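Give me structure tokens for this 90-residue protein.
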Amino acid sequence: MKLRDEEQVEEILKRLRRAEGQIGGIIRMIESGRGCDEVVTQLAAVSRALDRAGFKLVACAMRQSIAEEAAGSRPAMGVDQMEKLFLTLA
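Here you go.
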């Protein structure tokens, strides 16, 4: 399913780019010998950022499928498929 809401896609990409930058920072932290507690704190932040991006993506797909169904067309994703995606993130 191709997402059509460009605003939502940009927001998801922004979150992913932020996580990408955080991962680079974590790598530099480890290379420079930073403490385990600092590194784990940053890893947790990246994990949350990725989770949010994933949930935003699923929510966007759900809204799109609902709109397609309301318009009288067959939704690109069924409820079972969306549930499976959602649970993959859990």
